[in-house]
Amino acid sequence: MDTAVRLHDVAPRRSPMVHLTPVRAGQTSTLSDLLHLMGAGADAQGPLAGTPIPLRFLHAGDTLFHEGAPAEAIYFVRAGTFKTLRTAEDGYEQVLGFVGRAEVLGFDALCRGRHPSAAVALEDSSVYVVLANDVLSLGQRLPALDRIVHLAVSAALTHRGEVADVMAAVAAEVRLARFLVQLSRRMAECGQASRRFHLRMSRRDIASHLGVAHETVSRSFTALADWGFVRVDNREVEILDLDALKELSRSTRRQVDEPVRGHALNAPGRLDVRPEVRANAT
Prior knowledge:
With 282 residues, the protein is α+β, with helices and mostly antiparallel strands. It has 2 domains: 131 residues, Sandwich (Jelly Rolls), CATH 2.60.120; 113 residues, Arc Repressor Mutant, subunit A, CATH 1.10.10. Helix 2 crosses helix 3, helix 3 runs antiparallel to helix 4 and helix 4 crosses helix 7.
């Protein structure tokens, strides 16, 4: 396996649930800051926009909330990246998704009063905290807040649908291609570089999310790099041919051999194969 495309695992550091912390000295946090983060204009902010709200700061590996914990609040990611996961009875951690800046965490816990999953920081992160009891009351008095909550929840539901789309693919390379295409689109929506980015998650996290072995993730990155679709250096990823990557991502129900750039990926319903490459790979 090409060491240039290996993704190193970093075991998450377990920690107890992080309690609400005061705003750091010299920093202020208000609903106006949250509204600005979520894209609400100044004209959408009312007199309540100056209401103070808590900030929570976490280090990489810290747990924002545990699976089964009471739903005390919803969280808007101010900075950083989180993974959401569930733990099976045998201890296996299934990564459900990854949540970044200007996205919401914990809303799915309000209906039953407990979190159905856990959220763990993948890097130093911070979140705005809106207490569960305040979500409806503040939303009624501040329509801009009510709007951003609905939009954030709608985006979260869309991302859940994308997970199902990833899992529908048979080939691991296609699952990885779909994951990278979706990640690129989300980066663009946040105003960040969509072709070159640093993966905050480990190879093992990606494998759990895609439903494959972590060794398979490395092999799939190697394949995408060999085909000229991406360049990977540890966790630094550059998408070289987004159109070809999207075309590969449309192959749902079949295994994928080595596609020829510029030929098979443009042919409807099929992927060309280079027998000599397959023979060399075996």
